[in-house]
Amino acid sequence: MSGSPIRVAVVNDYEMVVAGVAAMLSPHTDRVSVVELDSGLPVISDVDVILYDTFGQVQGDGVDLEDLVRGSEARVVIFSWNVQPDLVARAIDRGAAGYLSKGLSADQIVDGIEAVHAGETVTPRPDPEAAERAAGEWPGREAGLTARESEVLALITQGLSNQEIAERTYLSINSVKTYIRTAYRKIGVTRRSQAVGWGMRNGFEPDRMRSIDTSPPA
Questions:
Q1: In CATH, which of 3.40.50.2300, 2.60.40.1930, 3.40.50.360, 1.10.10.10 is domain 6-130?
Q2: Element (H, E) at 49
Q3: Which of 164, 136, 126 is nearest to 55 (CA)?
Q4: For 69, what's the count of Cα atoms within 13 Å in the CB-facing half-sphere?
Q5: Alpha-carbon gap, residue 79 to 54, rounded angstroms
Q6: According to CATH, where is 1.10.10.10 located in the chain?
Q7: Positions of CATH 3.40.50.2300 in the chain
């Protein structure tokens, strides 16, 4: 690619997650330049692409793309391991310019960002193993938590019920319960209150809370 690197803002409410994405993209500074790391503020820089990492975040129809863009010309790319076709389709219908799986390599992610910047709409190919190859960093990784287990624990720490977690992550309630059991075993707790306490001590509280706008479109 010729010319200046594409200016990218990484958006997520967990500082560790944002830093992990930036570190993953850092070997490709000739192609993309991470000019803003947002773990608590609206995107304010003049950027080309906003990469919205869904870890512990509102997803699907709840993502307020207008709030992310704030009137700029930036194109929004959803970065997630939730790549169900209906979820991807709804995000694109609501205005996302691309949807990238966390199962991609850093080079493939940069390819996707470049394609979106060139005006293409990028969507993932079905990949049931994507969650097992999730890129980046997440709280609790040093404790052996997988990306999915970590996200479920983050949502528990945020105060969500099992049903609310299932709705947020687009997982079945049984899958949520399985991730909870395996996460509890790894961090040595047996009750929800203990899990919340552990989460609060180990970086599972977000820097800000995004609410879901359930009002119908104007």
A1: 3.40.50.2300
A2: strand 49-53
A3: 136
A4: 18
A5: 6
A6: 140-201
A7: 6-130
Distance, CA of 66 to CA of 215 (rounded, Å): 15
Fold of 140-201: Arc Repressor Mutant, subunit A (1.10.10)
Q: Name the amino acid, one letter, at 10.
A: V
pTM for this one?
A: 0.80
- Digit-by-digit pLDDT tens for the chain (218 residues) are 457 899 998 888 888 888 888 899 988 989 998 886 665 555 656 789 999 888 887 676 666 666 666 667 889 999 988 888 888 888 888 888 999 998 888 999 999 999 999 999 999 876 656 555 666 778 888 899 998 899 999 999 999 999 999 988 888 999 999 999 999 999 999 999 999 999 999 988 876 544 333 344 34
Q: Are 32 and 59 in contact (CB under 8 A)?
A: no
Q: Are 57 and 40 in contact (CB under 8 A)?
A: no
208 vs 30: CA distance, rounded Å? 32
